[in-house]
Amino acid sequence: MTPPAPTTYEVGGAVRDALLGLPVDERDWVVVGATPDDMVRQGFRPVGRDFPVFLHPETGEEYALARTERKVAPGYRGFEFHASPDITLEADLARRDLTINAMARDTDGRLVDPYGGQADLRARRLRHVSDAFGEDPVRILRLARFAARLAPLGFEVAEETRALCRTMVEAGEVDALVPERVWKETSRALIADAPGAFIRVLRDCGALAVLLPEVDQLFGVPQPARHHPEIDSGEHTLLALSQSVRLDGDLPVRFSVLVHDVGKGLTPAWMLPGHRGHEERGVPLVDALCERLRVPTECRDLARGVTRYHLQCHRVRELRPETLLRLLQGIDALRRPERLTAFIRACEADYRGRLGLEDRPYPQAAYLHEALERCLAVDARAFVDQGLRGPAIGEAMENARREALEALRASHR
Fold first, then answer.
1. What does the alpha-carbon distance between residue 407 and residue 411 come to, in Å, rounded to a whole number?
2. 380 versus 50: which is more confidently predicted?
3. DSSP secondary structure string for all residues of 16-76
4. Stretch 56-78: mean pLDDT
5. Taking the CA atoms of the chain, what radius of gyration do you get in angstroms?
6. Is residue 9 a contact partner of residue 112, using CB atoms and an 8 Å limit?
7. Residue 344 has pLDDT above 90, yes or no
């Protein structure tokens, strides 16, 4: 008997987003009833290392053979994959993480939905397909990332999925996650529309304390109500993160906002609810977090500057010229003027990230930009023409910049 011809299905995110009315950026496909040789004969290029994945010869889109997986060792890498022509579409979809990602469409546009994904879309519910979810800790990160993306549409995590995530964390599964994967999912969540939902999902199941303990320890730490009506340091961080989205901050800005107050987690109990010196205490924590997760240099450098200088930014008009100059030097704005815009955006998100104070103006931004312009207007050639050489030029420029900043300060009195 001649075996049936292979069948191709569109799967995963493209199906989900189309049903939600969202733009579809990329499409993935599953081929049922085919072998690797069948795909190669049709001109597909194999790229899968762990299981058969192929690139379409014209579109470049990914086509994977239907497959199943089996847990054979601890951690997210401990899986054995099996692909063969007799694996059904339903069996392939069963290994996926969430029901809303376990739907498919055939070439005629008919929906295949064996696990209730469409119903969960209507109910705005993030629910795992099966208990196999619990075998892969990466799925906790993915769940939290989907929450960050879909929370604005009203999506929430199903209670049974929340419970399963807690069980996974208690079993130590999250400990096996490698830094690169943690950062990949975190960075993707931070640039979503509701990055705070990512943090809340991780915190709810206990994963935040494992993956980002510096952020987790902020929750429950009080702040002075006259400055922070929301009181809780962790809640302030999430409010500021929401403001970073509203201000159209990019990844370095949003990451900087996420970690800008981590020093408050180390404030001695006798000092609470005040946090004098939390900026300096926070910088080593940011360094450690960035080294642990291998955070890109651009994100790390901006985060260090925001952590160290955000309070000075808020009261910039009160700063002495030498202090303001050190701020500009500390964030490397004299060498990289574009850094100031990102720094101000993160500081403004912090300033507005307070309950009931989300819309207050931030005139500090214009003042800082003017300060940088005046400093950059100081030209070394003028001092060379005066006959100065070597370190004397640098000293003269420092003095000239301080004078320029003093003039700026006087003009705003």
1. 6
2. 380
3. HHHHHT------EEEEES--HHHHHHTT-EE--SSS-EEE-TTT--EEEE-EEEEE-SSST
4. 70
5. 26
6. yes
7. yes
The amino acid at residue 278 is: H
Q: Is 47 a domain residue?
A: yes
Of 83, 116, 149, the one marking the end of a domain is 116
Given this model, what pLDDT does residue 69 score?
Answer: 64
Task: Give the 3-state secondary structure of residue 8.
Answer: strand
Number of domains in the chain: 2
> What CATH number corresponds to the domain at position 106?
3.30.460.10
Taking the complete model, does pTM exceed 0.70, yes or no?
yes
Inform me whether the pLDDT recorded for 227 exceeds 80.
Answer: yes
In the DSSP assignment, the letter for residue 223 is -
**Does residue 397 fall inside a structural domain?**
yes
pLDDT tops 80 at residue 154: yes
Last-in-domain residue among 116, 145, 172: 116
DSSP string, 60-104: --EEEE-EEEEE-SSSTT-EEEEE-TT--HHHHHHTSSBGGGS-E
Answer whether residue 39 is part of any domain. yes
Banded model confidence at residue 293, pLDDT cuts 50, 70, 90? very high
Our CA angle for 277, 278, 280, nearest 5°, is 70
If you search the block for the tokens 């964390």, which residue do you land on?
A: 169
Q: What is the DSSP string of 348-410?
A: HHHHH-STT-TT---THHHHHHHHHHHHHT--HHHHHHTT--THHHHHHHHHHHHHHHHHHHH
* pLDDT tier at 1, thresholds 50, 70, 90: very low
Torsion (CA) 351, 354, 358, 359 in degrees, nearest 10: -60
Decide if 271 is inside a domain.
no
Q: Is 90 exceeded by the pLDDT of residue 239?
A: yes
Q: How confident is the model at residue 49 (pLDDT cuts 50, 70, 90)?
A: low
Q: Is 315 buried (19+), middle (13-18) or exposed (0-12) by CB count in 10 A? A: exposed
* Domain boundaries, position 386: 377-413
Q: What are phi and psi of 247, to 5 degrees?
A: -85, 5
